[in-house]
Each structure stands twice: as structure tokens, then as C-alpha cells.
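Figure 6 in text form: structure in, sequence out.
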């Protein structure tokens, strides 16, 4: 990770507006916030955060689908026709 992506909490406090502008302009995708030279938080654009959350959810759903496919028991399944008879209005 590039050194410019690290930002001390003191510098963040002093330069909040400029830091947020840098993220909004796309100059950097994220800043790792340091407190006492240790990583404590990540600051990123809302767009990047939402994209990351969406990708994580897609991966979670893919893992769930793959698990269900591996554990599928056709003997316990119900056909579409049977479902329609049982639940159709």
C-alpha cells in the first residue's frame, strides 16, 4: 500500500475537509487512519463502501447457493406442479 494512503488521526483532524475532498475527487480510494502509528480505521467514499458491501453480499449468496447445491437431496424436493397445487390461490 502506498505511503500516501496512510494518514495520522492528528492530520485527519487538522485536514478533514481536504481529506474528504481528496476522496470525493477520486485522488485516492481510501485512507488508513493511524493512531499512535497503528492502523485504527479506514476512510473511504460511500460509493466504494457500497460496492464493497454489494460484492460481499454477492459472495455470501454464491457460497450459500453452492452449499445448497452440494447438499441437495432430490428425494426431499417438491416439484413445481406440487407446489402450485398446494399454495396457488
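Output sequence:
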Amino acid at each position: 500500500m502506498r505511503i500516501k494512503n496512510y494518514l495520522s488521526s492528528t492530520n485527519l483532524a487538522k485536514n478533514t475537509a481536504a481529506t474528504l475532498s481528496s476522496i470525493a475527487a477520486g485522488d485516492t480510494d481510501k485512507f488508513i487512519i493511524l493512531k499512535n502509528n497503528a492502523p485504527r480505521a479506514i476512510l473511504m467514499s460511500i460509493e466504494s463502501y457500497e460496492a464493497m458491501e454489494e460484492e460481499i453480499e454477492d459472495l455470501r449468496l454464491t457460497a450459500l447457493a453452492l452449499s445448497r447445491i452440494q447438499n441437495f437431496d432430490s428425494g426431499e424436493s417438491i416439484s413445481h406442479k406440487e407446489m402450485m397445487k398446494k399454495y396457488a390461490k
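Caption detail: The longest strand covers residues 38-44.
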